[in-house]
Design goal:
Blueprint: E1 13-19, E2 22-28, E3 35-43, E4 50-56, E5 63-68, E6 74-84, E7 89-91, E8 95-99, E9 104-110, E10 113-114, E11 117-124, E12 128-136, E13 141-149, E14 152-159, E15 166-174, E16 177-186
Parallel strand pairs: 10-16
Antiparallel strand pairs: 1-2, 2-5, 3-4, 3-6, 6-7, 6-8, 9-11, 11-14, 12-13, 12-15, 15-16
């Protein structure tokens, strides 16, 4: 699957740690894309991104990559800013690279206003099984599921249509350690 025009998702955008000082950022675009320029952005907090490099789009080239040779210690978040031939800018989803003491992080959940299902974006430097607990705002577990986690960035589908409308949170647990929690609203 590749990006259609003006839409960038984490399934076609990825970043992987190469060694302690570098990461490989890669992406695909559709053959109908009219991309002109790609700017690779990095952040330490997943909110404030700065450019670390750019790649000029080429006709009939659909797979691109960029080597970030200044990977800092800790978690680095990447996103891509694509500018097309008309100057329209599109941003990708955010992916993470772990370079340090954390093994697994929850990057995001899309959407956070849920009608039937959602995807939990996870970055991991280890393989394993993750327990995902959905709790109401009183802390009661209303459902849970397990997910096989591979190394790298991945999307884990959450089936949520059985939940009544309300506010919830999903908590990820791996190797008896709480990885993180994300709040969401079921409509």
């Amino acid at each position: 699957m590749v990006w259609p025009d003006h839409f960038l998702s984490s399934s076609q955008f990825d970043a992987k740690k190469i060694n302690s000082s570098s990461a490989k950022v890669s992406w695909q675009v559709s053959n109908s894309s009219n991309a002109a320029q790609f700017e690779v952005l990095r952040s330490s907090d997943a909110r404030n991104f700065v450019p670390v490099g750019s790649v000029t789009a080429t006709d009939r080239v659909y797979t691109y990559g960029f080597d970030d040779n200044s990977l800092p210690f800790g978690t680095s978040y990447y996103r891509l800013r694509m500018t097309d031939q008309q100057g329209i800018v599109t941003l990708s989803a955010v992916v993470a690279v772990l370079n340090g003491n954390k093994d697994v992080i929850l990057t995001s959940m899309v959407p956070t206003a849920v009608t039937s299902g959602a995807y939990l974006n996870i970055s991991s430097s280890v393989k394993g099984t993750m327990l995902l607990q959905i709790t109401d705002m009183y802390g009661r577990i209303v459902t849970q599921q397990q997910a096989a986690i591979a190394t790298g960035n991945q999307q884990v589908p959450l089936t949520l249509q059985q939940l009544p409308a309300g506010a919830y949170q999903v908590t990820a647990i791996m190797n008896n350690n709480r990885i993180g929690t994300i709040r969401f609203v079921k409509q």
